[in-house]
Amino acid sequence: MSDDPETARQIEELAADDRPLLVLDVDDVVLEFIRPFPHFxxxxxxxxxxxxxxxxxxxxxxASGRLIEQEExxxxxxxxxxxxxDWQSITDGAAEALATLGGRAxxxxxxxxxxxxxxxxxxxxxALGLPYPLLTTEMAKGPAVAKLxxxxxxxxxxxxxxxxxxxxxxxxxxxxxxxxxxxxxxLRAFLPPAPDGVTVAEDxxxxxxxxxxxxxx
Length: 217
What we know:
By secondary structure, this protein is α/β, with parallel strands linked by helices. Helices cover about 40% and strands about 15% of the residues. The chain is built from 9 helices and 8 strands. It has helices spanning about 5-10, 35-45, 70-80, 85, 95-100, 120-125, 140-150, 165-170, 205-215; strands at about 20-25, 45-50, 60, 105-110, 135, 155-160, 175-180, 200.
């Protein structure tokens, strides 16, 4: 797994910090995604059928019923992220949990999205009162988390809704405490069981004390 050079550049801009490290995914961990996204699609003339845990193959043109291809899905996601301030609110319990943890841990948001959307997301997070540093990546998350940790062997917790991202971090930071958290738990039915070493959290109220304990707070 190789580094994303733009993500590496963003990490180098961060102030040095040796507090325990909490790295959070954004969509469906800190901001709602899978609840508002169908409403956005409807406004554009599309419908989402959740028949599996992926977008491609599950979005159809409302008028014709035609399932749209990956390229069109990517374009729609781009439109959604451009307009995210109109659609995405904070996931239940996230703001309170982060406020409690933030004084004693370094919190960094690591989102898998095209870098061009970073400024829009930054402005939206600020408007929601979430001032934590934001990193975007177009590649695997594991190398980014390893780079964030740096040379100091400080505790690391990583929270994501995508099993592939948890696996990536597990392979790059072997002793990271991994938490699988989904804004919509009904989607768990589409996923295989969490791999060994991953803690499954029902929501932020369930996750926060486990994260605090893992970070030694």
